[in-house]
Design brief:
This protein is an alpha/beta fold and 282 residues long. It has one domain: Alpha-Beta Barrel (TIM Barrel). The strands form two sheets. Strands 3-4-5-6-7-8-9-10 form an eight-stranded parallel β-sheet. The protein has a two-stranded antiparallel ribbon with strand order 1-2. Strand 5, helix 3 and strand 6 form a beta-alpha-beta unit. The longest helix has 13 residues.
Length: 282
């Protein structure tokens, strides 16, 4: 299985996303089973946020991991822009830790840019790392210009990862962002790695070329979409599934090695960008 190294921690390149989980109490058992299935298949990363269901996703994750050894997990959560100030951030992180049932998260991300001065947010993220409430911090929904601004701050280059939308139908980050992050040794976390319902290329799994490659590997279309994302160096994918079988399949996609012919077919269906595009955000 392919791996990604974040702040010195080597983790499997496919983790578990939790956006939209925890909202329906009738699905709680199934969703917890899905998290367990993903972890049993080899995942270590669980990505969540205070925004997801106003804390309900974190609460669900807390229930799912309460009997799992902490050193077998890599937990990521995120702070909302409205809470990303020196005045509010620690209280937000404390609430996230309480919902998760842990003393610290492995990575705490600034979910997207808000009105708080970037320097203030970053200094507080670094302080919370220093006091041990998170092992590392990073950012989300940052483009090249944002990262260049970040890197000018004293603590900016201490960022451990950047999380953005990236999938076969949304390849804008390949034009310059992935190269910038590789050059600066900043790992990339891909959210919505198999597409999203409200995205232009929402049904990537139905594309004939994707299906052809899937047939070659005796895999599902979703597995091929994930294998394509993590074929990029230092890219971690965090697909979300509330179905235990699908969660397991998602993680096992990390074992699929796409060939040059596979990649050519996928490029023909969804060409790489030839110019800088606005950052896709959901």
């Amino acid at each position: 299985m392919q791996t990604v190294t974040i702040a010195g921690n080597q983790v499997p390149a496919i983790g578990l996303g939790t956006w939209h989980m925890g909202d329906d109490p009738s699905l709680q058992t199934q969703e917890i089973n899905a998290i367990h299935a993903g972890l049993a298949a080899g995942a270590e990363v669980i990505d969540t946020a205070e925004m997801y269901g106003s804390g309900r996703a974190e609460t669900l994750v807390g229930k799912a991991i309460k009997d799992i050894p902490r050193d077998q997990l890599y937990l990521i959560s995120k702070v909302l822009p409205t809470n990303a100030s020196k005045q509010h951030m620690e209280r937000s992180l404390d609430a996230s830790l309480k919902r998760l049932g842990v003393d610290e998260v492995d990575l705490y991300l600034y979910h997207w840019r808000g009105t708080t001065p970037l320097a203030e947010t970053i200094d507080e993220l670094q302080r919370l790392t220093t006091v041990g409430k998170t092992k590392a911090w990073g950012i989300s929904n940052f483009d090249v210009s944002d990262l260049e601004e970040l890197w000018q701050l004293p603590n900016g280059p201490k960022a451990a990862a950047n999380e953005d939308l990236f999938n076969l139908g949304s390849r804008g980050v390949e034009y310059s962002l992935l190269d910038w992050q590789a050059k600066h040794e900043l790992p990339f976390i891909a959210y919505s790695p198999v597409g999203a319902p409200d995205q232009l290329n929402a049904h990537l799994d139905r594309n004939p070329n994707v299906l052809k490659v899937a047939q070659r590997h005796n895999a599902s279309a979703y597995q091929i979409l994930l294998a394509w994302v993590v074929s990029h160096q230092q890219v971690l994918a965090i697909p979300q599934s509330s179905n235990p079988d699908h969660a397991k399949e998602n993680v096992l996609a990390g074992d699929i090695q796409l060939t040059a012919d596979d990649l050519k077919l996928l490029d023909e269906a969804y060409p790489a960008p030839t110019e800088k595009l606005p950052l896709d955000v959901l």
